[in-house]
């Protein structure tokens, strides 16, 4: 899940970004509204975490502008503004959720995962494909009730493809969606992670979920 974190506090940016990455999210960072709109216009994000009090362009104007431009990214407002009127205005402008600072980090992660499930049309946090169970909360994969030990990169790839079952993604699309702008990930690295993922699934006796469409990319059928 790729996230744009829009927050002008460097300290909060640093702690939130680090925490989200530990939970498997890919995170880009914007420190003002103008920078946020530039990122939104040139990148694909599953969810945008948006503060309202921002330099240059405030959060509500960022939200209004992106919706007027046809951007349908999920938006979770994270703001110290706790008045009912603020929440109503944010939701009416097109936000999908609203959290008030101070907040529980665990609740934020839970809400992000819930938004992702809602967007993908999958309500159960455990996705079962041919007996392979992918748990987005515990970040574990099981087959025949035994854990398949995957690296964070391997889990991220399997989780992303499985929740978009039937869709083909090229190397470039996977790099764009699964890694933040600060990461340097090559086509060869993606191929290596896919190869390793397949070997680990095979070693556990699980079916080979990740298929190759030669010349196009990868998918889970």
Automatic annotation (TrEMBL):
One of its GO terms (cellular component) is protein-DNA complex. The keyword Phosphoprotein applies. Residues 2-116 form the Response regulatory domain. Keywords: DNA-binding, Phosphoprotein, Transcription, Transcription regulation, Two-component regulatory system. Pfam families: Response_reg, Trans_reg_C. The keyword Glycoprotein does not apply. Residues 124-221 form the OmpR/PhoB-type domain. InterPro entries: CheY-like_superfamily, OmpR/PhoB-type_DNA-bd, Sig_transdc_resp-reg_receiver, WalR-like, WH-like_DNA-bd_sf. GO terms for biological process: regulation of DNA-templated transcription. It comes from the Bacteria. GO terms for molecular function: phosphorelay response regulator activity; transcription cis-regulatory region binding. Residues 124-221 bind DNA. This is DNA-binding response regulator.
